[in-house]
Amino acid sequence: MRSSYKEEDVILLLKDITGLVKPQSTEERERMIQSGRHYCEMLPVEYAPSEKYMEAYHTALKGYAGQTAKAVGKVTKGFQNTLFSIAFVCIGLETRFKEIFSKENRKPLTVFLTAQAFNIIVTLIISYVIFGIVKPLLA
Prior knowledge:
Layout: H1 7-14, E1 23-24, H2 26-34, E2 43-44, H3 51-94, H4 97-100, H5 106-138
Parallel strand pairs: 1-2
């Protein structure tokens, strides 16, 4: 498999290093990187958050979780619509209509268009039954 990682780095990353690599402070790791050692051979010291920090976190979470979720939802919805539109443009750019309408593709094209027409008709019938008959009865 092609990779930008060196084989020895990947092998190190896949090894169980429990007890083999001592966690080090940021200053220690920076000094070792500057002297030529690779960062993948080091682990940062992980600090447990203090009680005061956790209290501030939970307070902020309680007060702003709803607003944050709505804001993130709006932003991602915008990306979703944009990416969806780009996907359709790309499909259009790669479509070779000359190939689709060529003589050898006429039969598959006819079958596809017939199936699509059938799907549209069935969907319209189901929609009419649900929204034109069932929903008014339930209202």
